[in-house]
Amino acid sequence: MPSTYSDDGDLEPDGLPSTGRQQSCAVCGAHPFWVHPIDPRKACFDVGGKEHTLPTFWVLCAGCERHLRAKEVDVLISLHSESACDEWDRAKAAQAVLSFVDAATQGRPLSN
Predict the structure, then answer these.
(1) Using an 8 Å Cβ cutoff, are 4 and 13 in contact?
(2) Which residues, 6+ apart, have CB-to-CB distance to 16 below 8 Å?
C-alpha cells in the first residue's frame, strides 16, 4: 500500500502525491509512475466477514499500470498476492485488487 509522506511538498492540492518519492507500487512494490484516486464510495471490501477500506489513492509502477489498462486483473492479483503469507492474506490481497479496479478513478502520471 502507499507509504506515508514526511514532506507535504510532494502533495497536490487534492491530497494526492505529485511525485513517486517515498512511494512504492501498491501492487508489486516497484517505483511508481502513476497515481489513481480511489472513489470513497467504493473503497470498502469484505474478506471473511471483516470489512477493510482502501486508502484514498494507490500508486502504480509502469508495468502494473499497463496491466490495469489491459484489464489483466488476474495478473495484478497474482503480483499483489506474492507477499501474502497465508490463504487469508491471499484472499485479502485479491479482494483489495478487485476493489481497487472497481474504485479507481482516472490515473495521472507522477513527476519522478
Answers:
(1) no
(2) 35, 37, 56, 57
Please, what sign has the CA dihedral across residues 104, 70, 63, 88?
positive
- CB-count exposure of residue 17 (10 Å: 0-12, 13-18, 19+): buried
**110, 18 contact by CB (below 8 A):** yes
pLDDT tier at 112, thresholds 50, 70, 90: low
Query: From CA 91, how far away is CA 2, in angstroms rounded?
Result: 19
- pTM for this model (two decimals): 0.81
58, 26 in Cβ contact below 8 A? yes
With contact defined as beta carbons under 8 Å apart, do 103 and 54 qualify?
yes
